[in-house]
Amino acid sequence: MDDLEPLPVVLLHGLIGSLDDPAIAAALHPRLVFSPSLLGYGANADTAPATITLANQVEYVGQLVRTKFGDGRFHLVGNSVEGVVAALFANKQPEMVASLITAEGNFTLRDPFWSASIARMDQAEAEAMLDTLRIDPEGWLAQSGISPTEERVSAARRRLNLQPASTLRAMGRSIVETTGQPSYDALLRSVFVRMPVHLIAGERSRDGWDVPAWLKSWP
């Protein structure tokens, strides 16, 4: 993938963060892996919800990667809803992105169905939903067909506690607003002609991924 020294990999987590996992870093060794917590997550969990938008996430990612890598290039991976942030960043800063990898990233308004449902909730409903998941991480994994091993349950519990419900609501609203605009499809097309793009889907979830028809026949 790289001509000389392996370029770093930047991982953007999904609606529930994060991807800062030693196992992931080990799998990508010897590449340097950077898995930041975005606005509203982890150390940034107290970010004001009104400021949590995809546009602000893109700006924040730019600040982080410049601090980490200067003007160097890297491979950018966006998981699920953060696939939107990754695409927006790649469109804005194409000179920094060696390739874009979208792991079931949202392409159309049909993809962020969970985000859309959270966006419609009031604060009390969102908090109750998140509390339910935190109480039963095994059930949350089982809903996705994931065997709830001790290691996976521990990781799920940690990730469910990385963000407040207000972050999920803010992200949900911004994701729906962005992917629902006709200009988003045009933006994706623009990104795809400017850099290598790779799509990754899970074995059980591939059929539910709403990949646009034009992309299915992409060269």
From TrEMBL:
List the InterPro entries hit by this protein, alphabetically. AB_hydrolase_1 (IPR000073), AB_hydrolase_fold (IPR029058)
Q: Indicate the segments forming the AB hydrolase-1 domain, all copies.
A: 8-118
Q: Which SUPFAM superfamilies match?
A: alpha/beta-Hydrolases
Spans traversing the lipid bilayer: none
This chain's protein is named Esterase protein
Q: Which Pfam families match?
A: Abhydrolase_1
